[in-house]
Amino acid sequence: MDNWKKLRTASATLDIGGAIWHLKGQPDMFRNIALVASLTRQHVSVMAPQSGWQGTFTPDAVRIESLEGHATEERRAPRDFYHGHAQDTSWDRLHALYFTGYALWTYLTIPFLYTYPGFHTEELPEWEENGEVWRRLKVTFPDTIASHTREQISYFGDDGLLRRHDYTVDVMGGAPGANYASDYREVNGVMLPTTRRVFAYDEARRKVGEPLLVSIDFRTIEFGAA
Fold this sequence. Notes:
Blueprint: E1 7-17, H1 19-23, E2 33-38, E3 44-48, E4 53-58, E5 61-66, E6 73-76, H2 93-109, E7 120-129, E8 132-140, E9 151-156, E10 162-169, E11 175-187, E12 190-201, E13 207-208, E14 214-225
Antiparallel strand pairs: 1-2, 1-14, 2-3, 3-4, 4-5, 5-6, 7-8, 8-9, 9-10, 10-11, 11-12, 12-13, 12-14
């Protein structure tokens, strides 16, 4: 925690894919992107040179413009624009950016995020998967943080590293997601997963292996200190 508190920003290049983007009508929007995220407040800037756009996410607004700063699209109170949505409801680019912005911010800050003001945690019974026993932490998010849903569960291995992260996705009508974290890399003294794979899970919380809903692959990442 002492080390984490010295950090202020995260910069990364990455690719995001998976079946969900085809369902949403945005199959290649987040291929070969770069981002800069604040670690102390929900703010993410994204640049997609391959697709010719750049954008910003905050919980209160999302904005997309061309790389030259033209043809601006903006949406205030973006979460209000998912009313009645299901997992297969088509999205426009602002829908996709809001979802991706809050998701990436959450993934970059877990588990340190759980110590921020307003979060509540409760340890759950252990879980066996992949030949390991994982400790589980139920986390209740405050209303001030945009995320998939208020109650989420994180699974940790004997080494203290996140293995899996479960949630339902409010902006997709409550679709379940089991987010597996792997390929850890030490970045500025922080162990960070560079690969994430998201699947559905059944009523017993067992992973549904097909289809792969979301893939996230970080190519480069670094933290900036104060």
